Amino acid sequence: MKQITKYVIKNSLKRIFLYRACLVRLRMMGVERVFSYTLGNETGVTPDQVRKDFSEFSIKGNKRGGYEIDELLSTMESIFHRNKDHNIVLVGMGNMGQSLSKYSRFVQRNMNIVATFDIDPFKQKMRSDIPVYTMNRLKEIIDRFKVKVAIVAVPEISAQEVTDELIRHGIKGIINFAPVLLKVPPEIVVNNVNLSDELESVIYYVHNLLKADGQKNIEYYTRL
Fold first, then answer.
1. What is the rounded CA–CA span in Å between residue 187 and residue 5?
2. Which of 59, 107, 132, 145 makes an SS bond possible with 87, Cβ 3.0 to 4.6 Å?
3. Contact status, residue 130 vs residue 106, Cβ threshold 8 Å
4. pTM above 0.85?
5. Do 59 and 140 lie in a common domain?
6. Crossing angle of helices 47-56/36-43, nearest 10°?
7. Which ranges of 84-194 would DSSP assign to H, the alpha helix?
8. Which has the closest alpha carbon to 150: 94, 98, 91?
9. pLDDT tens per residue, the chain (224 residues)?
10. Are residues 106 and 55 located together in one domain of the fold?
């Protein structure tokens, strides 16, 4: 039975990404050890939250002596399976797909887009470091490179059909940039990334801040 994915990306996992970025920066500054309160201050959470997140992912440290940064980063590398390459396919070579296919940080983190796919014959002829194939070669490429994760960057109208085909050929995880909630079998992981929603969230908070500032100004001048 298909459903909206049950695998919601945990906030604790998102915070691990923030901790890792902070640790990398501290290491570049020559810092060797760090305390939970430092990580908390840098990432906007309490020291207790840092320790709780670390405990959830079996990251151990010394409460008095702090954490060794190199050891922390090594543990985080193992959490995200950075010790091996991960082959990925990308479906949809519109503006979003082309930008994603050129994103250099994927390679830096051992995530290799081995092939892209599009139904447009013009895009299939594009000169690129990563080949653009027709959809009828999807199974061949997935099998050849043992791909388990795919990026979907197609229009909303075709996203579910593309997802069904990817799953049928062995894909277990999908990063979805189409503005639609995909329905998948229970064992499939889907992470929906809607850039419009993210931007609207920022707009919402900006307007709330402006409204609050405006109210403060009114109260200030009223007291004069």
1. 8
2. 145
3. no
4. no
5. no
6. 100
7. 95-101, 104-108, 121-124, 138-145, 156-168
8. 91
9. 565 655 556 788 888 888 989 999 999 999 899 998 899 998 899 989 998 998 888 887 666 678 889 988 888 888 777 667 889 999 999 999 999 998 888 877 788 999 999 998 888 887 778 899 999 999 999 999 999 999 999 999 999 999 999 999 999 999 999 988 899 998 999 988 888 888 888 888 888 887 766 665 555 445 55
10. no
CA distance 200 to 56: 31
Q: How many residues does the chain have?
A: 224
